[in-house]
Amino acid sequence: MPAISQGPTSRIFFSQRLRLHYADWGNPDAPPLLLIHGGRDHCRNWDWIAQRLQNDWHIIAPDLRGHGDSQWSTTGTYNMEGYVYDLAQLIDQQKLAPVTVIAHSLGGGIALRYAGIFPDKIKKLIAIEGLGPSPKMQSERDAQTMAERMQKWVTKQRELSGRLPRRYANLEDAFKRMRDENKHLSEQQARHLTQYGVNQNEDGTYSWKFDNYVRVFPPVDMSRTDVAELWSRITCPTLLVYGRESWASNPETDGRLEYFKTARVESFAGAGHWVHHDRLEEFMRAATDFLAR
Q1: How far apart are the C-alpha atoms of 9 and 28, rounded to whole Å?
Q2: What angle do CA 84, 85, 86 make, to 5 degrees?
Q3: What local confidence, expressed as pLDDT, does residue 164 receive?
Q4: The pTM is what?
Q5: 78: exposed, middle or buried (C-beta count within 10 Å: 0-12, 13-18, 19+)?
Q6: I need a labelling partner for 225 at 20 to 30 A (CA). Which of 123, 130, 167, 203 fits?
Q7: What is the dihedral of CA 128, 100, 48, 65, to 10 degrees?
Q8: Peptide bond into 98 cis (omega under 30)
């Protein structure tokens, strides 16, 4: 895998009083392309893809609130409405619409909802495992009473309030944790992701940049019916990407594809949840073909 060469410029925008960061790969006269990362990740996880596409696109990769170099929520609460609003702010402030989007996991969920709310502002969309919990998992959650969901949320919030960011003695220890998280990563990938995913503490140790509170979603979200209605409003060509070794459920077989009017699914053998890392070259061929149509 080729090394990352010239990197992007760091820029800032504001949303709901939060100071949010994004990486800008230049080429402002080219069509805009947003790359949106997943939970507990950061914008520099897209570097290999950005490097390959930067000559043809104006690439912007934001750090979600509570992630990377973006500010943490002052309340310790992270919900989808806030994430969607941040995306709306970035697109409107930078005048990116109609914009093309590639998004992963949580980022995919954000982008899909935004595309249903503002269908005229998205030109094309690739969502890598972005539909969230499978219908089976969602049914199990829906079966819980509001009291049960609130009790679990309060318990988890309290647990996280006393959980200090884990400290690694050196970068090598953090790198090993990154490799443990995804066995498909090459050594170079894991080191790159680790380098941009940690801050050095005052005592010389290292901790991940993300806020621990991003691990917990509020007990109330849009209903499955509401989310499906947003999916049905998407008008842009949409590619739903899945790894055949992932925990995520493939929408082509679990019924969720039926809610989309303009989407198709492409799955990748030998890939888990991070398809764009696990099968970079195959993903790039599929992505460039989709974007060129």
Answers
A1: 12
A2: 90
A3: 86
A4: 0.96
A5: buried
A6: 123
A7: -70
A8: yes
- Cα–Cα distance measured from residue 258 to residue 246, given in angstroms and rounded to the nearest whole number: 21
For the chain, give the mean pLDDT.
96
123 within 8 A of 290, measured Cβ to Cβ: no
* Angle formed at CA 206 by CA 68 and CA 275, multiple of 5 degrees: 45
Neighbouring-strand partners of residue 36: 103
94-132-240 Cα angle (round to 5): 70
| Beta pairing partners, 208 | 198
Asked whether the predicted pLDDT for residue 1 surpasses 80, the reply is no
> What pLDDT digit, counting tens, does each position of 235-276 carry?
999 999 999 999 999 999 999 999 999 999 999 999 999 999
- pLDDT for res 146: 95
Average pLDDT over residues 25-43: 98
Q: What percent of the chain has pLDDT over 90?
A: 93
Q: What mean pLDDT do residues 272-293 have?
A: 97
The domain 9-141+214-292 having CATH identifier 3.40.50.1820: the answer here is yes
Q: What is the CA radius of gyration of the chain?
A: 18
Mean pLDDT calculated for residue range 175-190: 93
